[in-house]
Specification:
- By secondary structure, this protein is α+β, with helices and mostly antiparallel strands.
- It has helices at 2-12, 21-28, 51-58, 60-63, 123-131, 144-153, 170-177, 319-322; strands spanning 18-19, 39-42, 67-71, 90-94, 112-113, 134-137, 157-163, 182-183, 191-195, 212-216, 218-222, 253-254, 268-272, 284-289, 302-306, 312-318, 324-327, 338-340, 346-350, 353-358.
- An eight-stranded mixed β-sheet has the order 5-4-3-2-6-7-11-8, with helices on both faces. A five-stranded antiparallel β-sheet has the order 16-15-18-19-17. Strands 12-13-20-14 form a four-stranded mixed β-sheet.
- Strand 15 (302-306) and strand 16 (312-318) form a beta hairpin.
- The radius of gyration is 23 Å and the shape is elongated.
- The model is unreliable at 1-14, 76-85 and 198-206 (pLDDT under 50).
């Protein structure tokens, strides 16, 4: 339910999700050595409430930061923390407190108004982007493609929050395949709690946080070369055609868990999107995304679509709606998804697969 409301947030552009300080600390503590002497831009962050700005301001001298720039889009709502009207777009350029380097009181820092609405695509915000060495923020998920495209255009280093669904975006996947963007260390349990007043949190009691919404599948994206990226996945299984069946419309085997990738198979392997959390370019090569438009399917089998109980629907598709598929097995826990119109054979659609190959 939380994910459903999160999707609605993206559609409605109401995706002002404030990141918790503890989640920022957990991730960015891995990157401390990158910040020395750098200008850091947080260009989706109201400096009066942003935990990104707070994190870097608190560690300004410890990290040896040169400058922090924090900008935000104008907000028609009331400020979540101070209850003040924050309709105007504002920004801060912070270079430390020369009078008291150890001070943690930022209330006296001058907050300036931007001329425009603070959109990261505006000319004045792009001029601030040009000054930055590293961009670190939680951008609007509804504008993620445009946001990343801008970072790439201006050749900026970055550490940003996004949703794992973005991996399947054509533009983002191309960058992943070309090793121009990859996943960071991640949120605990693959989920994050965000401060947001628009949506009710349907998380279980153990995961509930007052005043926050829990969202699964949230990840960190970066192009900074981190240690994790070169840690190879330990493989222990041997290939058997029974355990790793081939797809019917692409020459590759299916693997349901990244930890089950066979150590002795040299062909193409289809793995879940979550594999990217374990991906090392030293160990694997990314071939394609297992959907139409990213890879070329090898047949055009017409099939009837079955419902969630495996019953006919009277609706038909070709090549399992443009995704990878394999023969339905008796051991499958879920009913078959498709039935061949000519032979009557049953098939299982395999969603969200990345096609990879082991490097020899």
């Amino acid at each position: 339910m939380a994910n459903e409301r999160f999707d609605n947030a993206k559609k409605n552009k109401a995706d002002e999700f404030y990141t918790r300080l503890e989640d920022i600390e957990k991730e960015l503590d891995h990157y401390k050595n990158f910040f020395r002497g750098k200008v850091i831009l947080c260009n989706c962050d109201d400096p009066r409430v942003s935990n990104f700005f707070k994190y870097f301001a608190l560690n300004f001298n410890n990290f040896g930061i040169k400058k922090i720039i924090s900008t935000c889009y104008k907000n028609q709502d009331v400020d979540l923390f101070t209850q003040n009207d924050c309709e105007k777009a504002v920004y801060i350029e912070y270079t430390g407190n020369p009078n008291d380097p150890t001070s943690t009181d930022f209330s006296t820092i001058e907050v300036k108004q931007l001329k425009g609405d603070g959109d990261f695509r505006s000319e004045e915000c792009i001029e601030l982007l040009k000054q930055a060495d590293i961009v670190i923020t939680n951008p609007p998920f509804s504008l993620f493609r445009e946001y990343v495209a801008q970072l790439v255009k201006y050749e900026k280093k970055f550490i940003i929050v996004g949703h794992q669904n973005a991996i399947s975006y054509k533009e983002i996947f191309s960058l992943i395949k070309e090793n121009k963007i990859w996943l960071g260390y991640g949120f605990k349990g693959g989920a994050a709690h965000f401060i947001n007043t628009h949506y009710e949190d349907y998380a279980s009691a153990g995961n509930h946080r007052e005043g926050m919404i829990r969202v699964s599948g949230v990840v960190w994206f970066t192009n900074l070369d981190i240690k994790k990226r070169h840690e190879e996945l330990v493989l222990y299984k041997n290939y058997t055609p029974e355990e790793f069946p081939n797809y019917e419309n692409y020459d590759a085997i299916n693997v349901d868990k990244s930890s089950d990738i066979p150590l002795d198979y040299d062909g193409v392997i289809g793995v879940p999107i979550t594999f990217l959390d374990k991906y090392s370019p030293d160990q694997f090569e990314i071939i394609a995304l297992g959907i139409v438009g990213s890879c070329e399917f090898s047949n055009e089998r017409k099939m009837e679509i079955l419902d969630k109980n495996g019953l006919p629907t009277g609706k038909f598709t070709v090549n399992a709606k443009g995704t990878l598929y394999r023969k339905h097995l008796e051991s499958d826990k879920k009913p078959a998804a498709f039935k061949d119109c000519e032979t009557g054979e049953l098939y299982q659609s395999i969603y969200a697969r990345i096609l990879i190959k082991r490097r020899k």
